[in-house]
Amino acid sequence: MTNELTAEETRRAQEHEEQRERIRRQHLKPAGERPASSARGLHHTALVSSDVEATVRFYQDLLEFPLTELIENRDYPGSSHFFFDIGNSNLLAFFDFPGLDVGPYAEVLGGLHHVAISVEPTRWEHLRSKLIDAGVELIEHSEVSLYFRDPDGARLELIADPLGEMYGSHVL
């Protein structure tokens, strides 16, 4: 198998880059010219859990994100809504929906691709070792990102870059 692109793949890649460049020119303002955001931050991201205890064991025991609350989901009687502290006053939340066939995790348009959580480099190394020891399949990228899936298949990324940076470049 060769790594060379076909003429069609090269043409499509060039078209995509031209579109990104057009969007950057039209919409991306230099940092000093951007208005302040109307948002204060991400309060929480909510995912679906098939098993509350398995989710707690994975996120609290393995990833070391403390469980901060476990309440009834006000929208669905019998369902739980629970939260993990992911630092910087941010939460990762879950719902379970007992009795509903929600089906397996799927990446779809408008759906979740992955959740990227920044951790200190020494914590990143520690969690990397824990994930490997637990037999979690990992993909490592650029020596700062670990991609893996939670018990329900949601894709997660632990990134050792500081908030507002991506692989050494400022994105905020």
Automatic annotation (TrEMBL):
Tree of life domain: Bacteria
Annotated Basic and acidic residues bias: 8-21
Signal peptide residues on this chain, from the entry's feature table: none
UniProt cross-references to SUPFAM superfamilies, sorted A to Z: Glyoxalase/Bleomycin resistance protein/Dihydroxybiphenyl dioxygenase
Pfam families: Glyoxalase (PF00903)
Gene3D superfamilies linked: 2,3-Dihydroxybiphenyl 1,2-Dioxygenase, domain 1
All residue ranges annotated as the VOC domain in the record: 41-161
Residue numbers spanned by region Disordered: 1-42
The protein's name: VOC family protein
